[in-house]
Amino acid sequence: MTSSAREQYIVGVDLGGTNIAAGAMSLDGTKHLAMQSIPTNSSVGDEGVAERIVGLVQSVILDTIEHSGASRRDFVGVGIGAPGPLDRVRGVVLVAPNLGWKDFPLRDRIQERLNLPATLDNDANCATFGEWWQGSARGGRNVVGLTIGTGIGGGLILDGALYHGSSDMAGEIGHTTIDLNGRHCKCGNYGCLEAYASAPAIATRAREVLVREESDSLIPSLVNGRVEDITAQIVYAAAKKGDQVASEIVRDTAKYLGAGVANLLNIFNPDIVVLAGGVAAAGDALFVPLRAEVRRRAFSPAVRAVKIVAGELPGTAGVVGAVASFKQQHLGGV
Amino acid sequence: MTSSAREQYIVGVDLGGTNIAAGAMSLDGTKHLAMQSIPTNSSVGDEGVAERIVGLVQSVILDTIEHSGASRRDFVGVGIGAPGPLDRVRGVVLVAPNLGWKDFPLRDRIQERLNLPATLDNDANCATFGEWWQGSARGGRNVVGLTIGTGIGGGLILDGALYHGSSDMAGEIGHTTIDLNGRHCKCGNYGCLEAYASAPAIATRAREVLVREESDSLIPSLVNGRVEDITAQIVYAAAKKGDQVASEIVRDTAKYLGAGVANLLNIFNPDIVVLAGGVAAAGDALFVPLRAEVRRRAFSPAVRAVKIVAGELPGTAGVVGAVASFKQQHLGGV
Predict the structure, then answer these.
(1) Which residues of chain A does B189 touch, with a Cβ-Cβ cutoff of 8 Å?
(2) Is A262 exposed, middle or buried (0-12, 13-18, 19+ CB in 10 A)?
(3) A9-130 — its CATH code?
(4) pLDDT by residue for chain B (334 residues), tens digit each?
(5) Which residues of A are less than 8 Å from B255 in CB distance?
(6) Of A62, A159, B66, B224, which has fewest CB within 10 angstroms of its CB?
(7) Which value, in Å, is the radius of gyration of the alpha carbons in chain A?
C-alpha cells in the first residue's frame, strides 16, 4: 500500500480595468493550470464584478479538477491582485478609478462566496512578485518592478519579501517626480515618470511631434492618418522598421525611464530591475539606450550590482504573483 | 550577598570629513557617557586617521570607566559610522573623497588595535538609525532619514531594520533626479536633489540672486559684503529676521525638498520622514512650506500616514546610530 500527500492548489486572480485573468497553480509553483480570461465589464458594478470573479474562479477550479485529478478540497485559497490603493488587512479596495469602485470589501466577498480563504494585494506588487517567483527576476534579493501600461505601477521586493509600506501605498514609482516643473500628471502632481513614459504618454509625445513637424514618418500611414489612433505599440512597430520619428520617441522614452530607474538604483541598490508590460515589446531599441542613461545617471557601484531586464511572463505575471502573495500572507512564505 | 549583572557598553564613532565624534552608551541605550570630538585632520592619511580614532575611543573608554565604575571588560565593541560607499561585510571604506581614502579596511584596523569587535556602516544610515532609536523618529516602523549638510545623505529603516541594498549603496536620496535637465551635480548626474537643497546649494542660490538683482537684502551685511562667505545658516538667520530674498530662497528650498520627500512618500509610504543636519535650524520657515509642497505632490493616503519631523539629536545622532548598527550587526537587534 502506498500513501502520498495529495497535491494542493491556489487560484490566482488578476483584476484589471479591461480583463480579469485567473489560473490555478500547485503550491510549489511547478504546475500552472486552467489559465482563463474574461472581460471585466466594470459597468455591472462592484458586486457584479465580484460575481464575475467568483464565476471565473469556479470555472478554473472545475477545469483544474478535470485535467489533474484534483478534488475541490485540494484548493487551499485564492490570491487576488487588484488596482490600488487598497487595505490588505481589511481586504478592501479603497479607490479604483478605472473600475468606479470605492471602499469595496472584495476579499471577503470572494471568500464568503467560494468558502475559501482569500488575500488581496496590489496588482503591480503581484506582477513584480510573479516575475520574482517564476520570471526574469528569479533569484533576486532586492527587486524593483515597473509595470508600464496605461499607467506605471511599481512593486518592491526587499530582502526577499514584498514591501508594502505603512498603509499599503508603497511602490507608486510611476508617480515620482523626474521634472519638478514638468508635465501635469493625472494624479495632480507635475513631472511624474508616468506622465512621460506610460503607453498613453508615449502616444501623446508622438502625436505632438507629428502635429508640430513635417516628416516622412511611417506612423500616420500605420493609423490611416488618424493620429488619435496612435499607440505606444504603433510607435514601437514603426521604430523597428527604422522610422526616424518613432526611434526618437523611443530614445526619449529611454531617457525618461532611465532617469526614473537611476533614481531607484541610488535609493534601493537592487540586484534586479524588471520592466513589465507592453514596453517589453520595444526590445533593444528601448533597453539599450535605457541602460546607457542609467549608467550616466546612477552611482557606478549601484549600476554594477544590478541587472535591468524585461518581464518574462506577459499576461500571467499578475496571476502568478497573486498566488505568491497568498502564500506569503497565508502560509508564511513563498 | 547580592549579585547583579554588570552593565555593558558600546562605543559609537561618527567619522566625518571635519570632525570625529565618539561616545559610550550602555547596551540598553539609556546611558550616554563621555561624548568627545576631535578634528579629523585627514591630511595624516588613512592609517593616521585610524590612529586618531583609536586614541579617541581609548579616551572615551577611560573617561567612561572613571565616571561609571565600569571596567575595560565591560566594553563589548565599537560601532563606526563612516562616509560611503563602503563594504560592510569586509569592513572596508571603498571611496571617501572628503577623506582622500580608497579601499581602506577601517573596521579591521580599529578592531585589531583595540582588541574589540567593530562594525562599519554608512554615516547617513547611522544618523537615521540614531534618530529612530532615541530621537524624533522613535516608534517608526518605516522611516526615511535625510541628513542635509554639505551633501544630502539618506538612510532607510524598513520594517524596523536598516535597509542596505544589494551592495551597501542604498539610501543615496540626495542623488535622485528631481529635474532631469537641471543643475549639474558633483556626482556627474543632472538635477539631483543635492544640487538644489544641500547647504552649499542653498548658499549658491542665494549668491546667484544677490548678484543678479538689486535688493535691500540683509544677507550682504551679515557677511560684510563678501558674498563668497554666504552659508545656508546665514540665509536661515536672515529669513528669521524677515529678509525677503532669504525667505524666498528658503521657500524654494522647501519646494525642492518637497518634491524629493513626496517621491519618498510615493515610493516608501513611510510613517516618519526625519530631516537632520543644519536644515533643522531653519524651523517652521522651512517645514511649513515643505509639508505643503509634499501635500500638493504626494498621494493623500501616503501623506496621511506620515509625520515629517526635524532631527532631535544634532551632533550625536551619528554616534547613537553607530552603536545601534553595532547592536543590529553583532547582537542581532536593537
Answers:
(1) 262, 296-298
(2) buried
(3) 3.30.420.40
(4) 344 568 999 999 999 989 999 999 999 999 999 999 999 999 999 999 999 999 999 999 999 999 998 999 999 999 999 997 899 999 999 988 889 999 999 999 999 999 999 999 999 999 999 999 999 999 999 999 999 988 999 999 999 899 999 999 999 999 999 999 999 998 999 999 999 999 999 999 999 999 988 889 999 999 999 999 999 999 999 999 999 999 999 999 999 999 999 999 999 999 999 999 888 778 899 999 999 999 999 999 999 999 999 999 988 999 999 999 999 999 888 8
(5) 180
(6) B224
(7) 21
* Residue-level length of chain B: 334
Q: Do B268 and A168 touch (CB under 8 A)?
A: no
Cβ of A267 within 8 Å of Cβ of B173? The answer is yes
Q: 3-state SS of A106-147?
A: HHHHHHHHHCCCEEEEEHHHHHHHHHHHHCCCCCCCCEEEEE
The SS3 call for residue A105 is coil
pTM of model > 0.90: yes
Identical fold for domains A9-130 and A139-310, yes or no, is yes
Tell me which CATH homologous superfamily contains domain B140-310: ATPase, nucleotide binding domain (3.30.420.40)
Measure A169 CA to nearest chain B CA, in Å: 6
Q: Is the peptide bond before A220 cis (omega within 30 degrees of 0)?
A: no
Helix axes A106-114, A45-68, angle to 10 degrees: 40
Chain B residues near residue A190 by CB distance under 8 angstroms: 297
| Protein fold of B9-130+316-330 | Nucleotidyltransferase; domain 5 (3.30.420)
What fold characterizes domain A139-310?
Answer: Nucleotidyltransferase; domain 5 (3.30.420)
Annotated domain spans of chain B? 9-130+316-330, 140-310
ipTM value for the complex: 0.92
